[in-house]
Amino acid sequence: MKKTFTLLFSLALIGTSLGQKDAAKFREIYSQALTEQQGFAWLTELCGLGPRFAGSEQATESILYFQEVMDSLGFETRLQAVKVPRWVRGPQEKAWLVQGIDQAEMAVTALGGSVPTPNGGLKAEVVEIPSFEALDSLNLEGKIAFFNIPMDPSFISTGYAYGSAVKQRWAGAMEASKKGAIAVVIRSLSSSINKYPHTGSMAYADDIKKIPAAALSTYDAELLSKTLKSDPELQVKLDMRCEWKDSVYSYNLIADLKGSEKPEEIILVSGHIDSWELGTGAHDDGAGAMHALETLYLIKSMQIPLKRTLRLVWFMNEEFGLNGARVYARSAKANSKEKHVIAIESDGGGFTPKGLSIDASDPIISQLKNYRSLFEPYGVYQFSKGGSGADINQLKNDEIVLIGLRPDNHRYFEVHHSALDNISAVNAREFTLGSATLAALVWIMDRDDLCLPSKP
Ligand SMILES: [Zn+2]
Q1: Among residues 89, 85, 81, 78, which one has the least CA distance to residue 54?
Q2: Cα angle value 109/389/35 (rounded, 5°)
Q3: Quick check: 391 and 347 in contact, CB under 8 A?
């Protein structure tokens, strides 16, 4: 009895000292990251190069520029060719609220992929659509359809609120065109009321007439809705010069930090390098791309040993077709010499990290939850099951552990896909906590083999 007690006591002591050592390592990683803030310096540089819309020269130039940075840091880099669609916003996108001879300009932006209006624009009466359920009973023949479905402010997760309203953006043109509308304007998917319109991808179907599609700022959507109530015959004029061009080639950027014992096993950290072109994509997803780079940098500069290869992937064109992620997943599947065991994505902005969403087996999720006390001092405590990221989800199979970084999301949809998504919207400390969280996560998962063992 006494022996058992002594054994348990000494095991508990070892456990505590290991726990303390792990906590000290976490402290070291977070301290180093916050002291240096190297990732934020790179993010500032990246945003200084301009927007990175897929297919644009700037997107490719940004990749080539940072490939050199990564080479100089001693990572093994390579480019992977990705064919991407090429849609160009054009020099003009304007909308006016017209009442008789009075015209008031509204803040508007074309949705990504929209066809242009005829030269000189188009003008028509407007039908407001408060929900998809209301659509059935409405006559849209010859009219401009106005989807005015706000993001539900009662949701705690703004991501869910976005999800509940985003159908008007991707399906609005198809649904309105089926009912005879000549154009569609939607309320921007934003959680605040202001004059900044938010773009994003939309879709057409081959058998439905393609009509121009645009987003009004939330301020103008409210104004239009209010004015329509007193003047149902008002008109909206829309003039957009966007156009489709031939597809072009761009790249995924890949950088490896080779593992010492199992270099063929890959732990992937990622973000997407393309952005919308109204802002400079500081949060979406410059922050995620730089979280990945700073993770590699911290592991290397702090000489943290990894058994497995840590790989950065900057995916091209998440926003407009996931082309880069699909190309990468195909090549990963075809390569029998490598095995992806863990894939991590940051695509929720550069705000304070709150947790991780984990797409893995229950035993792995509960093992990860055992580490919660190590992350808690840094405000990272929400470990939830399911959902990781759109890009790494292409790698999903029965064995890989997929993890998404989950930052605070209350401000994300104020800037997302708008001209407000610039470096001034990113706080250096909040952003840096994300990189430190991923570096600590990679270190401990690799050390404790927190993935399914490879088959011999
Ligand atoms: Zn994104």
Answers
A1: 85
A2: 90
A3: yes
Distance CA 321, CA 287 (A): 20
Strand partners, 109: 215
**Looking at the annotation, which residues are catalytic?**
318
276 C-alpha to ligand 1 centroid (Å): 9
The string of DSSP codes covering 117-168 is PPTT-EEEEEEEES-TGGGGG---TTSEEEE-----TT-SSHHHHHHHHTHH
* CATH code of the region 29-87+246-447: 3.40.630.10
Where does the chain hold its CATH 3.50.30.30 domain(s)? 92-241
Q: Tell me how long the chain is.
A: 456
Confidence tier at 451 by pLDDT (50, 70, 90) = confident
The closest alpha carbon to 117, from 173, 180, 183, 171, belongs to 183
Q: Are 252 and 329 in contact (CB under 8 A)?
A: no
Q: What is the pLDDT of residue 15?
A: 57
Average pLDDT, the chain: 95
* Residue range(s) of every CATH 3.40.630.10 domain in the chain: 29-87+246-447
For domain 92-241, give its CATH number from 2.60.40.10, 3.20.20.140, 3.40.50.300, 3.50.30.30: 3.50.30.30
| pLDDT at residue 7 in the model | 54
Q: Rounded to the nearest whole angstrom, what is the distance from the C-alpha of residue 416 to the centroid of ligand 1? A: 8
CB 454 within 8 A of CB 341: yes
Q: Which two tokens stand for residue 262?
A: 């199992």
Q: What is the pLDDT of residue 4?
A: 57
Contact 200, 79 (CB under 8 A): no
pLDDT tens track for 7-20: 555 555 555 666 89
Which of 7-16, 193-202, 235-244, 267-276 shows the lowest per-residue confidence on average (mean pLDDT)? 7-16
How far, in Å, from the CA of 271 to the mean position of ligand 1?
Answer: 8
Q: How far is ligand 1, taken at its centre, from the CA of residue 279, in Å?
A: 13
> Whole-model pTM above 0.90?
yes
pLDDT at residue 10, as a whole number? 55
pLDDT at res. 456: 45
Phi first, then psi, for residue 92 (nearest 5°) are -140, 135
Residue 108 or 454, more confident: 108
